[in-house]
Design goal:
Blueprint lengths: L4 H55 L2 H11 L4 H29 L4 H29 L4 H23 L4 H26 L10 H35 L2 H16 L2 H20 L2 H36 L7 H27 L3 H49 L1 H4 L3 H39 L5 H26 L5 H12 L6 H4 L6
Helix pairs in contact: 1-3, 1-4, 1-5, 1-7, 1-8, 1-9, 1-16, 2-3, 2-4, 2-7, 2-9, 3-4, 4-6, 5-6, 7-8, 7-12, 8-11, 8-12, 9-10, 9-11, 10-11, 10-14, 10-15, 11-12, 14-15
């Protein structure tokens, strides 16, 4: 299968931006974890999770509708965006007030109240920036959002790292996020005006708003449910087991979440593409989904194996000895990683094919399952119990979504199954090599560092991780080439699609599109 040029280019834009973003934020998280310890880092992570959990009520799925409708009818981008922004601004203020009331009512400490208050404002700006980027996603121009990701991440990490290294109070870390969120919103408005000739007027249109809310209803249920199973674990651990347990869980979960830029970027690209294809030529939808899933499997299967094998070294780098309890959490979450990657294109497929109601049902059931399992497992196994709850939840979503979308991708089932088998064999070979290497490499690295008078500690773990990642990638890629799970021509086609210059779309060429 060759990769379509625009799809590959859009994915590469956002993927590269997310790679840089995750490298910066992961390094930043290491600083925060080491400076503030499990308890302080637990409060920081829980406050962001709490604000994010209630923020979903501000969206109600409107951004998904915006991307889909702009992809299908780009001439309506301006009027759709204005209604989406107006709704989010008003609802955001209301939800923020409710969130702060709940924080006070539940008896959180003064510091937690301040952290959630600041995180809530930052989240509000993120929420009103999201529809702006949804328009560009609908137009299949993701390079603008990619630029924003890099800009705001650099600002947040730069300011936050300075505060942490000076041992400043936790609330200043949230202030750094707030400033970057504000800049992201105003940068999006500027780009809309200059690149898409869209002006924000916030003029209320009752008929259009009603139609958008009708379209968004199934997406809203899905968004609320997904926030429940994504954010409740950190909040429930913090409430049921304490700040330190939340910190141990968050340290492992942060590594897993740091990798989800890959399916997120791909899903952002394929959603608009599949929405347009479903409207114009339904035969192409299954091919696009199969292509996206193939490339995700190609990456996530060795990642899952690698995370489980390298968990002790990765946790040592992130938090050191204080975070030893995060190691089994990361090993369990490596199972969740595979399922969480593969549900991204399935969610896009369901939404693009007007099956968002089915997606809402799946995610609602998943939310209930996640909360129920957490209530049962957290009292017994704390952070490890929450990790198992996450793995079970993602696996359920994957299986249910595959069943519901079967008719759309069944023509490509042989291709996907054979690819999965070859990738699994290659990953198993990779795991075997890494395990064998661990038997003799550890002592040699320690002796080498000692001879150079370099402290063993973190450097020992960093060298282990780098060597195993490099060797694992070579072994996995080489085995896959031998098994014909990937070809040199495919690699060449992807590179060619990325470097090839895009032609402007009909929408972008029209000087009177918003007249």
């Amino acid at each position: 299968m060759a990769a379509p040029s625009r799809l590959t280019k859009n994915t590469s834009y956002l993927t590269m931006a997310y790679i840089i973003q995750k490298m910066l934020t992961l390094g930043y998280f290491v600083i925060v974890a080491r400076v503030y310890g499990p308890a302080g880092q637990g409060q920081y992570s829980a406050s962001l999770a709490f604000a994010g959990l209630f923020a979903v009520l501000t969206d109600l799925g409107i951004s998904f509708v915006l991307t889909r409708e702009v992809a299908r009818r780009p001439e309506r981008a301006s009027e759709l965006l204005n209604q989406a922004l107006l709704f989010r601004m008003v609802m955001g203020i209301l939800i923020y007030a409710i969130t702060m009331l709940l924080v006070w009512w539940w008896g959180y400490s003064t510091q937690m109240i301040v952290l959630v208050a600041l995180a809530g404002i930052a989240t509000w700006f993120d929420l009103i920036a999201t529809p702006c980027w949804a328009v560009f996603r609908g137009l299949q121009r993701l390079q603008y959002e990619s630029t924003s990701v890099l800009m705001v991440t650099g600002i947040m990490v730069g300011m936050g790292s300075t505060v942490a290294l000076l041992h400043g109070p936790l609330y200043l870390l949230i202030v750094a996020i707030l400033i970057s969120s504000v800049l992201s919103f105003f940068y999006a408005l500027t780009l809309l005006k200059r690149k898409a000739q869209i002006r924000v007027t916030l003029k209320f249109d009752r008929v259009l708003m009603r139609q958008i809310l009708i379209w968004a209803a199934p997406f809203a249920v899905a968004a609320i449910a997904s926030r429940i199973y994504t954010y409740t674990d950190a909040v429930m651990i913090q409430r049921m087991a304490g700040d330190a347990h939340a910190g141990w869980y968050s340290a492992a979960n942060k590594i897993v979440l740091a990798l989800q830029f890959i399916p997120s970027a791909l899903a952002a690209a394929v959603y608009a593409t599949m929405s347009s294809q479903f409207e114009n030529d339904k035969r192409l939808v299954g091919r696009t989904y199969s292509l996206a899933t193939y490339y995700l499997m190609l990456l996530v299967i060795p990642m899952g194996v690698g995370l489980a094998a390298l968990a002790p070294y990765l946790i040592s780098v992130v938090g050191g000895a204080e975070y030893t309890r995060s190691i089994p959490v990361l090993q369990v979450l490596s199972v969740a990683l595979v399922s969480s990657f593969l549900i991204f294109p399935l969610g896009s497929l369901l939404a693009a094919s007007n099956q968002q109601k089915h997606n809402s049902i799946i995610l609602s059931i998943a939310g209930v399952i996640n909360v129920g399992i957490n209530l049962f497992l957290i009292p017994q196994w704390q952070e490890v119990g929450a990790a198992w709850a996450s793995s079970i939840t993602y696996t359920f979503i994957l299986v249910a979504s595959l069943i519901l979308t079967w008719r759309l991708w069944k023509d490509y089932k042989k291709f996907l199954i054979m690819s999965l088998l070859k990738m699994t064999v290659a990953a198993a070979v990779m795991a075997g090599v890494i395990i064998e290497m661990q038997h003799f490499l550890s002592t040699r690295i320690t002796d080498m560092l000692s001879s150079l008078h370099i402290p063993v500690g973190v450097m020992h773990s960093v060298l282990h991780a780098l060597i195993y990642v490099f060797v694992g990638a070579v072994v996995y890629g080489g085995t896959l080439l031998v098994l014909q799970g990937i070809s040199i021509k495919q690699i060449h086609d992807v590179i060619k699609a990325v470097v090839k210059k895009d032609e402007p779309t009909t929408y972008e060429e029209s000087p009177t599109r918003n007249a």
